[in-house]
Amino acid sequence: MIENNVSVDIKAINEKIEKESAFVDLLVMEMNKVIVGQKHMIERLLIGLLGNGHILLEGVPGLAKTLAINTLAKAVQGDFSRIQFTPDLLPADVVGTMIYSVKDNDFTIKKGPIFANFVLADEINRAPAKVQSALLEAMQERQITIGDTTFKLDEPFLVMATQNPVEQEGTYPLPEAQVDRFMLKTVIDYPKIAEEQLIMRANLSGSFGTVNAVASIEQINRARSAVKEVYMDEKIEKYILDIIFATRYPEKYNLPDLKGLISFGSSPRGSINLAMAAKCYAFIKRRGYVIPEDVRAVVHDVLRHRIGITYEAEAENVTSEDIINQIVNQVEVP
Amino acid sequence: MKKFLVYIVCFVSWVGFSQENPVSMEVDTTNIKIGEQIQYKISVAASGDIMFPKLNLDSLGKVEVVEMLPVDTLKNRFEKRYLLTSFDSGKYLIPKQSVLINNKPFLIDSLLINVTTVKVDTTKQKMFPIKSIQREPKTFDDYKHLFWWLIPIFLIIAVILYFVFRKKVKKAAPVVYVEPIQEALQRLKELDEKELLKQNKVKIYYSELTDIVRTYIEKDIKIPALESTTNELIETINDFNESSKLGISKETIAELKEVLQSADLVKFAKSKPIVEEIRGHRNISERILQSLKPVKEEEPIKEEEKDGE
Predict the structure, then answer these.
(1) What are the residue boundaries of the ATPase AAA-3 domain, all occurrences included (chain A) (predicted)?
(2) Shortest CB distance from B270 goes to which of A8, A328, A332?
(3) Residues A304 and A185: beta-carbon distance below 8 Å
(4) pLDDT tens readout for residues A138-155
(5) What is the pLDDT of residues A70-99, one digit of tens each?
(6) Which CATH class is domain A230-330?
(7) In what order do the strands lie in the sheet with B97-101?
(8) B2: helix, coil or strand?
């Protein structure tokens, strides 16, 4: 293990994080005005926003996915756009294209809906691979080239892509290499009975509150740089690496049964994103340092799309979720 | 005219008689060089009890029989082949041979063979150096005697291995079971002896201190403490306690939580408590170890009780 000898003033970091994360509670409260329950999804949205990552959301229709990201955009005064992915969608429909102007006798650039701070790529698996690639490249590079001109996307830039887990016919499943570009894959479930009762009442009476801007883009960008300063001890780094390596070489972590169930383990993006997500989680909890609880809180969302399962695992109904559970129950906490 | 008719009758009878001889002889050649072979074939076009001649060496002179091949049975015909040779030049007569067919002898004509020699002109032959003595290729039998030497060598190796192996087993054998609480207290004592605090190694001190407590909980209370975070561990202990398995006081759990959380701060947030605080945590840890009660093993249901049910 490489020693990290940089001296750290935890007290100063804590104070800074306290200050910079003050808007988080306000933001969550504002979002809770229109979204009942779905605390997990809101937290993950914030992690994606602060960690400069993107989120793949899996859930049946009607679970407030669009509403959540729209509300977040409003609360931080960001631009929001929604792209409904369909089989006949073209890359130009996403990134934009050049249109001939008769008046100017020249081509002018028409920017696509991806030029926004918050982009909802609805049902991403309904569009063919070329469109998915166009979006995912933009996500990775954070810039778009139309014709000869390259445009840098505005920060923050958060893509929330959704997938419907039930209707798989006529879809184009995202390849593993593409899925790996999402920082988190969050699975959302139905609200609890009490929550759904509140949703029902609020919808019938139209008593949902109005979302106000409680933070600014500048605040978000400042918070992003503050997240990078959250202290992560070497022991936590080792813990993260142990988890990642256990997905690759389970037999070395006393999990020989998993060897036949995992076709491929997490990529290095997994460890980077797990560390970043843990820092973001610590930031949301208004802490200037990462503790093992932070890693545990985000490990499923970071790794569930990064572990490939074998046919044997599918035959035995073992999911990547089960594999992660076994790993975190086996790897010693520092 | 009468005389002419008698000659014709005699000639016809002679021809008729010769056609009745079922035995014939055939050779592939009558001129050979020394050592070459002649294939001498006797064919019998008849059925019944047939006895081919055994070519007698004395009668053949300097002609030798190399091989007498078995009788070849063909359709309405029998054939027997003889391979003959000679190692002396000259002309030799193979006498008449008799074949018995149903005990009736039939004669085969004698045969003259010519054996010629091979001319060797030693004056024209190229001179070669004298060849050295050629060694015979080694066979299995040449090494067979060595096996008698290998047997004692293998025996000695086997005896050595046996003693080495037995020694190892002996070393591994004494496993002394130490009660988890005794082990934990012993480790605590060893931690004190390391004097890590004097060396300002607070982080290592807390890592070892929490490891002692967690290992004890894992071993004796059967809770996966080493794989749990602080909150998870406290939650699990609370759950176990509520289901009255442990019987630990709430104060002890609160103290454990405080120690673990303080340790987390030291381990992950570079916190440096004052010495009194550290000593306090150490003493609390010892108290916690002594107050945690191990899970009693459930007694197996007796067979009689099972039957009664």
Answers:
(1) 54-184
(2) A8
(3) yes
(4) 888 888 888 888 888 888
(5) 888 888 888 889 999 888 889 888 888 888
(6) mainly alpha
(7) B50-51, B97-101, B104-108
(8) helix
